[in-house]
Amino acid sequence: MFEMTESALVEASVDEVWSDLTDASRLAEWIWPPRFETAAVVQATALGRWEVRSSVAELAVLGRVLELEAPRRMRLEWRWEGEEHATDAELTLESAADAATRVTVRHTGFLSAEERESHIEGWSNCLQRLVDRHGGVASFG
Predict the structure, then answer these.
(1) Distance between CA atoms of residues 107 and 95, nearest Å
(2) Quick one: pLDDT at residue 141?
(3) What is the C-alpha to C-alpha distance for residues 48 and 44, in angstroms, rounded to an integer?
(4) Which partner for 109 in 18, 70, 83, 87 could form a disulfide, CB atoms 3.0-4.6 Å apart?
């Protein structure tokens, strides 16, 4: 199995970034590019739904919250719509200097290096949009 870790330093509080991950309307604003017209469903409870969908891009992540330690950590079962294989995405938030937040994504369970590379690109882009939303520095890899 293959895995990846990406991180970014976001110029926002842990609570604000947590809301960006767990409030459906806020998540939809940044997780994918605006042209995707993203819709999200978030049930921030154990075994709750965490889904992101774009009808325009014909793309959806059907997630389920496996573990939740608000406002610091969320672990998701991550499955692309139409696929059977699920992976595991863990998002952690840590307070950093100057009231910033270090966001780290550790995503595991990929079946191939190509699948991992695709997710590295996707998470790098997502974290860059989160940095663009608040300011900060995306430090990939």
Answers:
(1) 21
(2) 60
(3) 6
(4) 87
